[in-house]
């Protein structure tokens, strides 16, 4: 690609140094000569009109032909796709230097940074896996503590139930005893009242 660009940058008009410098004087026209248009298409009319051109028209056509650049086909023949000259080794050296410089300046530090980041990520993942075992142990301990606490709460509730049942039973006994005591006192008082009210 680079060689084809370089080949296309060659001049189309080649000036050799061994030719003497010619000074060409271009005639100055106040008005450019006009080429007359043919009125009829017969070949005899065209010949007569071509012969009737003025000398100024012929001179201008000759000047145009003399200073015309070489055709594109000739230039393309001279410009090859690959020119194996001094530019090829220079381009190879430039490419190798650029490859070496980019490797040292850009790709090696970037590769080292990526390796360090990868290692730190792997280390963090390993530490997370290690902590997951610790988390499992802590979960098991928490579950054991919860089971022990539930057992203690269940035992305390059972104990409180027994104590409240015992307290209720003792209250029932006291109630019955007080009712009996009150009954005996009521009967004694009623007898006293009856004796006092009714003399016998």
TrEMBL record:
- What's its membrane topology? Single-pass membrane protein
**Does this UniProt record's set of keywords contain Cell wall biogenesis/degradation?**
no
Q: Which GO terms describe its molecular function?
A: proton-transporting ATPase activity, rotational mechanism
Which InterPro entries does the entry mention?
Answer: ATP_synth_b/b'su_bac/chlpt, ATP_synthase_B_chain
Q: GO CC: one term?
A: proton-transporting ATP synthase complex
Domain of life assignment: Eukaryota
Enumerate the subcellular locations listed in this protein's record, separating them with semicolons: Membrane
**Subcellular location, principal:** membrane
Q: What does this protein do?
A: F(1)F(0) ATP synthase produces ATP from ADP in the presence of a proton or sodium gradient. F-type ATPases consist of two structural domains, F(1) containing the extramembraneous catalytic core and F(0) containing the membrane proton channel, linked together by a central stalk and a peripheral stalk. During catalysis, ATP synthesis in the catalytic domain of F(1) is coupled via a rotary mechanism of the central stalk subunits to proton translocation.
Q: What family does the entry list? A: Belongs to the ATPase B chain family.
**Protein name (database record):** ATP synthase subunit b', chloroplastic
């Amino acid at each position: 690609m680079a060689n084809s660009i370089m080949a296309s940058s060659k001049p189309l008009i080649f000036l050799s140094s061994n030719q003497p410098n010619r000074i060409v004087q271009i005639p100055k026209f106040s008005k450019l000569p006009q080429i007359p248009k043919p009125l009829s298409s017969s070949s005899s009319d065209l010949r007569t009109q071509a012969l009737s051109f003025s000398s100024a028209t012929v001179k201008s056509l000759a000047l145009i032909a003399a200073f015309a650049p070489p055709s594109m086909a000739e230039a393309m023949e001279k410009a090859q796709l690959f020119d194996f000259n001094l530019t090829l080794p220079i381009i190879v050296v430039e490419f190798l230097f650029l490859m070496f410089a980019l490797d040292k300046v850009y790709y090696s530090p970037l590769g080292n940074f990526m390796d360090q980041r990868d290692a730190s990520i792997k280390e963090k993942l390993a530490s997370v896996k290690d902590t997951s075992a610790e988390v499992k142990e802590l979960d098991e301990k928490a579950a054991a503590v919860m089971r022990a606490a539930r057992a203690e709460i269940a035992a305390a509730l059972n104990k409180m139930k027994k104590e409240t049942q015992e307290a209720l039973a003792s209250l029932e006994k006291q109630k019955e005893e007080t009712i009996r005591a009150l009954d005996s006192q009521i009967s004694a008082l009623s007898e006293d009242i009856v004796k006092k009210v009714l003399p016998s």
